[in-house]
Every structure is written in C-alpha cells, then in structure tokens.
Design brief:
477 residues; alpha/beta; four-stranded mixed β-sheet
C-alpha cells in the first residue's frame, strides 16, 4: 500500500548521475594522462608504495583504481561538536546545510563608525562573540587578520581567541604543520584530550592545493598531519576560470575535481578512513578587472555543481554564501547574500563559509553577518516546504466555518499561526506606524541590532584549566 506524501519541499538538481560520471571520468583522465606535481617527500613516499606512477622526480599520475580505493575509504559523515561536549551541532551529511563566517580579511567595516580600516585584535574578538550569539550560524572562522597583533603566530592567536569566545565548532586556517600541531593541542585542551577531540571533533582545517595541479610542501604537510590525527579537513582548490583553469565551467569542474581527488588519495594513503570534506572553490576571472568574482550566476552554478559532485562521491561538502563583491553593506551586498544563501540551501552544501565577506573577500562586515543570518532564517522557512497532512488540509475546520465565516478565532488558527516566519529586521508596518516607530530604514535597524549583540552578548566561559593550557601553548610558540 502506498503511503501518502505529507510534506512537499522545494528542491533542485542540476547534474544527473550520468553527468556527474562524465565529470568524474574527465578528472580520472587528467590524473592518468597529465598528473599532478607533488612537492612533499613523505607524500611521494606514500605514493611510491601505491599504484601511482611517478616520473620526473615528482610528477604523479594515478590509475583509476587508486582513486576509487580512496573514495571507498573516506567517511560519508562528519559530526562537528560543541566545545567540551559530545553534542553534535553540525552533522555534515546528506543535504544538511550549516553556515559560518569566512577567514582572514585584511579590512574591517566598522559598524560603529562606518569606516573601512585595518582589523585590530579587539575587532576579531567582537566578531567571534557576534558569531557565538547568532543561532543561524553553526561554526566560526577567524574573519580578520589583526594589524596590531605583536606576534608572528597570528593563526595560533586567532584560534585561541575563537576557542575562548565561542563554544561553536571552528574552521581554522594556518601557515604550516607546526601551526596545525599547536592548534590541535589547543582544541584538545578544551575537549579533554586528543582522543576526546577525535571522537567529538570541534575543529576542521581549511587548506588548499595549488591550481593548476600542484601540491605544495606546506599544504601537503598540513593535509598529512590532519590525516595522521584523524581530524577533519577540507583541502579545497580554488580554480579560477580563465586564469588558473579553463575558462569553461566544465573544464574548471574537471580540473578542480582532479585536484580534490588527488588530495584525497594522499590523505587516505596516510590514514584510511580519516575524515575529509569535498570542496572546490571554483571562481571565474573578471576580464575587465582581473578580480576573482564572488557574486555572479556562474559562481552559484559552480557551487551547485560542486555540491552535487560531493554527493555523487558520498562525501560531506564545502560551500560559500553570505558574500559580495560590493565594498559596503548596501543593496548589492544584500542581494548577493540572499542569492548565495538560497543557492546553498537548494544545493544542499553541508559546510557553507564566508558569511560577512565584502570586496571579494578583502573585508569583513559584522552588519553583513547579521543581515545574512536573517536571510538564513527566511530561506530555511522556504526550504521547509508545505505540509499536506490532515491537520494542514483542515477539511473539518473549513466545514465547521462554512461559507462566509471567519478563521481568525478558531483553535486551528491559534495552533498554527506561529508557523509563519517572523522577521527581526524587515518592516511590515504601514507608513504611519513605521514613521511613529522612528521611520528607520533597514540599514539603521541592522546597525542597531549588530551593535546591540556585540555590546551585550556574553559567550559561555572557557574553563580556567583549558584557558591556562591554551595560553601555555601560545607562549611556547
């Protein structure tokens, strides 16, 4: 007996199974025929002990079977947890979407003054506390590089501040393996030890091979360390169509996919079953400005295709949203943020970063972060679809009210009216009531809300013992 479908959801699919296989086959041909350069001795030793073919010192070509072997071993689910607990706050699987900020902008768009200026250490902490306060954001990245920080270990300092000022999972970036080791030690101090961190991971490394088709010594060292420790990583290339990749999207997808697959082989040779997130930051080069574009229909098409390739491989996926090429938090930024969040939810990317990016990733805006959080709630409601069960169809209620009646006073309305989305930033008043309330434009309300959160939110404190251990690791350099 067939069961009735009681929930209707918006959905989208761009690539068929056969089309995913076309891209996969093209990437296998790149890896078989062209190969990749690997500039890390330990990685080359792993590859020499496998079925890979190495020539010209470090040119590595891969048989299809070796790639399929690695794909078979990487896990299909990664569960990112809250600091110091086993509570899963970001399960990376299927079409579940989790949003977070971006990393390492040089510039800060100050919501107090409207000034665009260099990041300070205080700004970084303010931004972390803002992310901690917003329930729509599931993870934190560092957002800014402080210009006033008197240390050569900026990435370690950033991670220490993130651990202190948010209990959410952290996606981190770093310089080298030494940074990885120090940062993992800090996360372990907050988690209750390295074994606890592995089983309840609270961090994930974002690193990159170099397009086209190169694995640098530094990036590969980080890749191998995270595999060795069985801690999650996204090793995502950034092919730029027309610059470092073919100008066509199909060519860029095939090239980026080959880079991801070759990274996965190295990763799984080091530690089969270690957690790995599939991602490729496919952009295109604007030929008028030579800027790598963040907000364009082609960028969002690439996000959909990358998410679908990740699901084709049954791997968790990496995405982008909440960003803009605009230099200020204006109408263009709002449109770009909304479009990108919508595309991410429809595509089903699992771990979606860059909320708050302006100027193609050079500037972080706290107001952009808060605005995007509002869009996430609105569009998640859209994605939740429409119920078609008996209670939603309300036939008995319609019959009881009858022709010419009203539904406002019914128990059914009282039971269900809160299911409609309610904005916190958008205005629904008519003009007289809006004027009486101050006549504030969206930008004014957005700035007030952003500053109120930054001034008032107090994160869950880090235990003293963990804080002391983290400071000790920082001081050790």
């Amino acid at each position: 007996m067939m069961t009735q479908q009681t929930q209707a959801f918006p959905h989208m699919r761009m690539l068929s199974e056969a089309q995913c296989r076309t891209i996969h086959s093209a990437s296998l041909e790149i890896l078989r025929r062209t190969g990749v350069r690997v500039y890390h001795d330990a990685a080359l030793e792993l590859l020499r002990a496998s079925d890979a073919l190495i020539s010209d010192d470090n040119l590595v070509r891969f048989p299809a079977g070796l790639v399929e072997w690695a794909l078979d071993r990487a896990p299909s689910r990664i569960a990112l947890c809250r600091r110091g607990s086993d509570e899963v706050v970001a399960p990376l699987e299927g079409r579940k979407v989790h949003f977070g900020t971006g990393s390492d902008c040089l510039n800060y768009l100050d919501p107090r003054t409207g000034e665009r200026r260099k990041f300070t250490a205080e700004d970084v902490v303010d931004c972390i506390r803002l992310v901690d306060a917003l329930p729509e954001l599931d993870f934190c990245m560092s957002m800014g590089i402080p210009a006033d920080l008197e240390t050569d270990s900026a990435y370690r300092w950033q991670f220490a501040r993130m651990v202190e000022y948010t209990s959410k999972p952290i996606v981190f970036v770093c310089d080298d393996r030494g940074d990885c080791e120090a940062i993992a030690a800090m996360a372990a101090a907050a988690a209750g030890g390295m074994d606890a961190l592995r089983i309840n991971p609270t961090l994930l490394l974002y690193s990159e091979p170099s397009t086209p088709l190169k694995h640098s010594e530094t990036a590969t060292g980080k890749l191998l360390y995270m595999a060795e420790q069985a801690l999650p990583i996204v090793h995502s290339p950034a092919p730029m169509m027309g610059g470092t990749a073919p100008v066509t999207m199909a060519g860029g997808l095939a090239l980026g996919n080959a880079e991801v697959l070759s990274s996965l082989v190295i990763h799984q040779l080091k530690n089969p079953g270690a957690p790995f997130v599939y991602g490729s930051g496919l952009h295109h080069l604007d030929m008028k400005t030579t800027i790598s574009v963040y907000s364009a229909p082609e960028f969002e098409l690439a996000r959909v295709a990358v998410a679908e390739m990740g699901r084709f491989y049954d791997l968790p996926t990496w995405g982008y949203a909440g960003h803009s090429d605009s230099c200020v938090m204006d109408e263009q930024a709002a449109a770009d943020a909304t479009f990108s969040v919508f595309a991410s939810l429809l595509a089903g990317s699992n771990l979606v970063h860059d909320v708050g990016y302006l100027e193609a990733g050079l500037t972080t805006s706290p107001e952009m972060i808060v605005f995007t959080a509002e869009m996430i709630t609105m569009l998640r409601r859209f994605m939740s679809g429409v119920s078609l069960d008996a209670g939603a169809l309300a036939l008995d209620v319609i019959h009881a009210v009858g022709p010419g009646g009203e539904f406002l006073s019914t128990d059914h309305t009282m039971a269900h009216f809160r299911e409609f989305w309610e904005p916190t930033l958008f205005n629904r008043k008519r003009v007289d009531d809006w004027m009486e309330a101050g006549g504030k434009r969206l930008g004014d309300r957005l700035r007030e809300r952003t500053l109120a959160i930054m001034d008032e939110h107090e994160p869950e404190p880090l235990p003293d013992q963990a804080r002391d251990e983290i400071e000790r690791i920082l001081e050790a350099g």
